[in-house]
Every structure is written in structure tokens, then in C-alpha cells.
Automatic annotation (TrEMBL):
Its main location: membrane. Keywords: Cell inner membrane, Cell membrane, Membrane, Methylation, Transmembrane, Transmembrane helix. This is Type II secretion system protein H. Belongs to the GSP H family. Residues 74-201 form the General secretion pathway GspH domain. It comes from the Bacteria. The keyword Cell wall biogenesis/degradation does not apply. It is a single-pass membrane protein. It is found in: Cell inner membrane. It comes from Congregibacter brevis.
């Protein structure tokens, strides 16, 4: 006989011609209830262990992927900004500069990850000199760059100034001096990316020619991170 794991009592129905109320209450009918479904403690613990294993295996890989995408996004943003500044210099036949900024209204500092400005550096309205790499007077502001993602640094080396990159009206770099823009994150130089800006004004991705795992700047020297 199949046992009933759960049961509860119901009083028998009664009427005046059959059972009295007292007799119905004294002779209850037992009804078998279906067992409730759910997870046991052991099953729940097994699920939690499985989740922990999956996170342990996939978590670091996912984090690394996010870091690579974040760094590459910053490099692409810098490359686009340099290309735009050079193109505007040629189109307008006037010098165009790009400089770091911390307040979105003036050139300031040398840490490009705080944001940058692109402007026509022709000394319009006075207050400075043409091609001085400083936004002043009535010079036209062409574009404002957003700060780099958290943890990403953007720095320049080998240009005439770390405070600006100036493109002449022919699209060349001012004073015909090349330089490099290096983009790093908390992983250091082994994961750093860089853009080499040639004398012509064109930018290219830095490469690792000696196979030591670190890309090289325009002087074929391994880049460094802050």
C-alpha cells in the first residue's frame, strides 16, 4: 500500500437525515496531499559550487577582455583625433593644434587622459602667436575630447612640446619632428599601445620589432608607462 507523506483531516459532510454534526466531527476523513517540490540543501550547495567554479574559470578571462577593449577604444579615439586635426589643417590651409585640457576650455598640463582640445592655431584675435600650441584670443575651437576611461593614461614623447601637437597648413608636424602618443593602463608596458606620428603628420600603430613584448616609439625605443 502506497504511503501518503502528507495528509490532513477533513470532517465528513452531514445532513439532518444522516449524521449529526457531532458524529461528522468525530469521524474525520483523511485526505492525502501531494508533496511540495523544491531544492534540497545538498542540491542548493551543488549549484552554488558550480557557479563558483564557473566564475573562477571565466572571470579573469572576462576581465582581461574588458581591459583590452577599453585600451583599444582609447587608442582609436586618439587616432581619430590626430587624423581629424591634420585633415583640418590641410583643408583650412592653417595650423591646427591638439592639446590636453583639464577644464575643456584651455590647454593645460601634459596628461592627455584628462581630455583634449583641437583648435585653429592661427592667433586669431591676438593674445599669443600662431602655431604656439595654446588656445588663446579668438582662435576657433573645433573639437573637445572626452577624458579617457578610468585607469587609462595617454602621454606624448619626443614632440617639440608635451603640451601640444601642432600640424602645419601642409599637414606636417611642426618643426618636422616626429613623436609618439603612448596609451597605457594598470597592466603596464607589456600591454601598452602607441601611435607614432611621422614628420608627414600621418599616424601609425607602434610595433614591437625586437620581440621583447613592448612596442617601440618613433626612435625605436621601448615605450614607457607612468
Amino acid at each position: 500500500m502506497k504511503k501518503c507523506p502528507y495528509s490532513y483531516a477533513l470532517p465528513l459532510a452531514f445532513s439532518g437525515s444522516q449524521l449529526s454534526r457531532a458524529e461528522a466531527l468525530a469521524r474525520p476523513t483523511f485526505v492525502c496531499a501531494k508533496g511540495q517540490s523544491g531544492f534540497t540543501l545538498i542540491e542548493l550547495m551543488m549549484v552554488l559550487v558550480l557557479i563558483a567554479v564557473l566564475l573562477g574559470v571565466g572571470g579573469p578571462s572576462f576581465q582581461s577582455s574588458l581591459q583590452r577593449n577599453r585600451l583599444q577604444s582609447a587608442v582609436n579615439t586618439v587616432a581619430t583625433a590626430l587624423s581629424f586635426a591634420r585633415a583640418e589643417a590641410v583643408i583650412r590651409s592653417q595650423p591646427v593644434s591638439i592639446c590636453p585640457t583639464i577644464d575643456t576650455s584651455s590647454c593645460s598640463g601634459s596628461n592627455w587622459e584628462t581630455g583634449w582640445l583641437i583648435f585653429v592655431d592661427n592667433n586669431e584675435g591676438g593674445g599669443g602667436a600662431a602655431s604656439d600650441g595654446t588656445l588663446n584670443g579668438g582662435e576657433e575651437l573645433l573639437r573637445i575630447g572626452e577624458p579617457a576611461p578610468q585607469g587609462v593614461t595617454v602621454r606624448t614623447v619626443n614632440f617639440p612640446s608635451t603640451a601640444a601637437i601642432v600640424f602645419t597648413d601642409s599637414g606636417r608636424v611642426l618643426q618636422n619632428i616626429s613623436g609618439t602618443v603612448t596609451v597605457c593602463d594598470e597592466r603596464g608596458v607589456n600591454e601598452a599601445r602607441a601611435l607614432v606620428v611621422e614628420v608627414s603628420g600621418q599616424a601609425r600603430r607602434a610595433v614591437d620589432t625586437d620581440g621583447n613584448g613592448v612596442v617601440e616609439d618613433d626612435t625605436v625605443t621601448a615605450v614607457t608607462c607612468p
